[in-house]
Amino acid sequence: MEAVAATAAPTKARDPRALAGELEAFNSLYRPHLEAVYDFAVRIVGERDLATDMVRQTFGLAWRSFPEQGNDVAGRLFTTARVCTLDSLRYRRDRNGKEREGLHFTRIDGHRVPDAAVFDQSLAELVWDAASALPREAYSLLALHVRHDLSPDAIGLDRTAAVRLARTREFFDREVSIRLLATRARHRCSELDILVAPDDKRELAQQIRRCKRCRETASRFVSPAAVLGSLATIAPSRSLAREIFNRPRRRGVFGIL
After folding, report:
1. Domain total for the chain?
2. Do 218 and 114 sit in the same domain of this protein?
3. Which partner from 18, 26, 55, 134 sits 20 to 30 angstroms from 164, CA to CA?
4. Do 130 and 176 belong together in one domain?
């Protein structure tokens, strides 16, 4: 837990047995969230090394404030991870980042697929392409809401930010639906078929709004947000979990005794 030690505040000497009890409590509350927090971070930054650093920082900050922050673990962890990851992108020298790693962003987790929903790999790729094209700030909120089931209140959004989140989801669903209609259902509407070639998104969106057949076809597609929520979690390395949670509990292990 060297990462935790790096961010932990100096404390007065305490009974090692008391600290061991805190560590056990911390692990039991926070370890179940490691994979989800890592998945959240790596989907924002697109790089394993940077995501790993942000996860270390996130759990280090969590340990620093433990147990004073209470048992609202998921909300605090994810909002902390969001700040850490966005800051890492904001202050890095290469604002566009290096080329994205070949991570498996579009694998489907069958256990997360909504009942009766059927979709293929190409749809998952289309959905992820649309999600990854969003500004990172917007994607981070959408992911917390759709992939990690956090309400605007749990994320700590005020009314204005909650409205922006709702609009982001509407925009995301609309963009994916337009692509789906253009690639899979253009033959069902002659006017849509004519508009697909110029690839004018504004005209395509207007056609879908005014055409009953297009709207009915779009309603049969799986919700893009549901597909995004069904993408499999990208797991961190086993060494990261050991580093954060499985260090031997002996005197001075965290450098704070």
Report:
1. 2
2. yes
3. 55
4. yes
Please state at what angle helix 73-90 crosses helix 34-45, rounded to 10 degrees: 20
Q: Three-state SS string across the chain, please?
A: CHHHHHHCCCCCCCCHHHHHHHHHHHHHHHHHHHHHHHHHHHHHHCCHHHHHHHHHHHHHHHHHCCCCCCCCHHHHHHHHHHHHHHHHHHCCCCCCCCCCCCCCCCCECHHHCCCCCCCCHHHHHHHHHHHHCCCHHHHHHHHHHHCCCCCHHHHCCCHHHHHHHHHHHHHHHHHHHHHHHHHHCHHHCHHHHHHHCCCCHHHHHHHHHHCHHHHHHHHCCCCHHHHHHHECCCCCCHHHHHHHHCCCCCCCCCCCC
CB 195 within 8 A of CB 189: no
Tens of pLDDT, residue by residue over 80-106, are 999 999 999 887 644 444 455 556 899
108: which strand partners? Answer: 231
Distance CA 210, CA 67 (A): 55
Q: Is the pLDDT of residue 29 over 60?
A: yes
Token pair of 139 as six digits: 């994607």
Q: Is the peptide bond before 198 cis (omega within 30 degrees of 0)?
A: no
Tell me the per-residue pLDDT of 182-214, one tens digit each, with 9 for 90 and over: 888 888 888 888 887 766 778 888 888 888 888
Q: Residue 89 half-sphere exposure, CB side, CA atoms within 13 Å?
A: 20
If asked whether residues 191 and 211 sit together in one domain, one would say yes
Does residue 245 share a domain with residue 229?
Answer: no
